[in-house]
Amino acid sequence: MTSVSSSPPTVRSRSLSRILPDYFGSAGSTFLTLLGCGILATIAWFVLDWAVLRATFDATATREECLARGGACWSVIAARWRIILFGIYPFEEQWRSALACTVVVTIIVVSCIPWFWRFWRLASVWVLGTAAFYLLMRGGVFGLRLVSEQNWGGLALTLLMFATTSVLGMPLAIVLALMRRSKMPVIAKTTGIFIDTVRSLPLLAILFTFAVVVPFMLPDFLVGEKLYRVIAASTLFFAAYEAEIIRGGLQGIAKGQEEAAQALGLSYWQSMSRVILPQAFRLALPATINQFVITFMETSLIVVVGFIELLAAGNAAYQTGEWRFAYVEVYAFVAAIYFVFVFGLSRYGAYLEGRLSVGRKQDH
């Protein structure tokens, strides 16, 4: 009888054997590793001491009690969370803004599920979800009090800007990318000039133009609400950048792919929708996820045209004599909200890259 006397090395031991020489392989790398660990440990202890050990968590604590402990005063969040999340939306109607936020988050999550990646399924989700969002936020029917778009704010406005900019901007970006690759020089050149013009302007200038200048250039019946003009400006800006990202993905596809699709009898639009664009999106996925993250962050710029989005609402939350000292805690809370959404978006992008990589390996 024989017995197994040794087991194969574990993944952990192999990983450590490969990692340790990178950090302690020489005197210089050892010094930098220890120095980095020391700096990180010092920062971690400072944050832990300020945010937890000496912090005040009592929702009824006063300014003097917070200052006496010397740590973070999280009481300001308990006192001001309504302003941070809902901005200047009417106090007694804020349940509608909270429900609208839930609707937007649900739409985004549902759209990330592969089963819904069909045009009519996605279109149905977004049409119904958008209608529910506007019904809740604006009201005016079913006994809901009418709330003007000028009073929308906080997290709901940030999510609205991000979702509508992305959903409206992506189809426009695809069209622009295809037009720029057109074999008709007039269309290709005109599209290129449009994209380059939009990309050469700061987003702030475009937002200000649509919010303030455009009403003087259009007849009254075409002006519309300022919020929708701002969304249109953000959508154009997103589409111009995303069009170049998609065009880069299209250039990475071998010319033989399109010729093979046409040899099978597929029309131009069939070959694009079924063969070329899916492969282009695989190549452009990391840059596209990065563009979504940038777009989410850029929603904070609409404060320059008079809207109180999440960051501006946080700024307003501590602008009183009582809580003015606790601005760091307010910004930390707002940063945590941004982090949750951006981290979730980044992880979903990593999941998609893995899923598409598996599909590509199986194709081979």
Tell me the radius of gyration. 26 Å
Secondary-structure content class: mainly alpha
Uncertain regions: pLDDT < 50 for 5+ in a row?
1-12
Q: Give the count of helical stretches.
A: 15
Query: Distance between termini?
Result: 45 Å
Tell the overall outline: globular
Instruction: Find the count of extended strands (DSSP E, 2+ residues).
Output: 1
How is the quaternary structure best described?
single chain
* Order of H and E elements: HHHHHHHHHHHHHEHH
Describe, in plain words, how this protein is organized in 3D.
- The protein is an all-alpha fold.
- It contains 15 helices and 1 strand; from the N terminus they run αααααααααααααβαα.
- The N terminus is likely disordered.
Q: How are the SSEs ordered, and which strands pair?
A:
Layout: H1 11-24, H2 27-53, H3 63-69, H4 75-86, H5 94-111, H6 119-138, H7 154-180, H8 185-200, H9 203-213, H10 220-223, H11 226-251, H12 255-263, H13 268-298, E1 308-309, H14 310-317, H15 327-363
Helix pairs in contact: 4-14, 5-6, 5-7, 7-8, 7-11, 7-14, 8-11, 9-11, 11-13, 12-13, 13-15, 14-15
Q: Main attributes?
A:
364 residues; globular; disordered N terminus
Summarize the structure.
The protein is an all-alpha fold and 364 residues long. It contains 15 helices and one strand. The chain has helices at 11-24, 27-53, 63-69, 75-86, 94-111, 119-138, 154-180, 185-200, 203-213, 220-223, 226-251, 255-263, 268-298, 310-317, 327-363, and one strand at 308-309.
